[in-house]
Amino acid sequence: MTNGASSTEGDGPYLAAVGGDLRVTSMGNVAVPNPAYQGLGGDPAFPKTIIRDYGFGCTFGLPTVTIGALSRRSAVAASTSRAAST
């Protein structure tokens, strides 16, 4: 799940040619309805919402970003943002 995308060209997630940067940002941590919630009067151990991590996963090393047949090493190693240079 993403929160947005942008490029060095400023036209959203679009690069007209090789040489720019594309950044995709995840939603990160999001409060979502808890499927175990038991309603009013239910067990307080099961809150109405829980936090889900919609990040991009592991942040060790430089992950690979693939778009179509183009693969590049990510220049940013954070769980909520990935940037790839073309």
Give structural notes.
The chain has 86 residues and is mostly beta strands. The protein has one domain (2-85). Helix content is 0%, strand content 43%. The chain has no helices and seven strands. The strands form three sheets. It has a three-stranded antiparallel beta sheet, with no helix packed on it. It has a two-stranded antiparallel ribbon with strand order 3-4. A hairpin with a 2-residue loop joins strand 5 and strand 6.
Our count of domains comes out at 1
Give Rg in angstroms: 18 Å
In terms of DSSP E residues, the strand content is 35-45%
Largest sheet: 3 strands, antiparallel
- List the secondary-structure elements in sequence, H or E: EEEEEEE
Number of strands: 7
How many helical elements?
A: 0
The span between the termini is 23 Å
> What global shape is seen?
elongated
The order of strands across the largest sheet is 1-2-7
Give the quaternary arrangement of the chains.
single chain
- What is the share of helical residues? under 10%
Mean pLDDT score:
76
- The helix/strand class is mainly beta
Quick summary:
It contains no helices and seven strands.
Overview features:
elongated, two-stranded antiparallel sheet, mainly beta, 86 residues, three-stranded antiparallel β-sheet, 7 strands
Per-chain topology:
Elements: E1 2-7, E2 21-26, E3 28-33, E4 49-54, E5 64-67, E6 70-73, E7 81-85
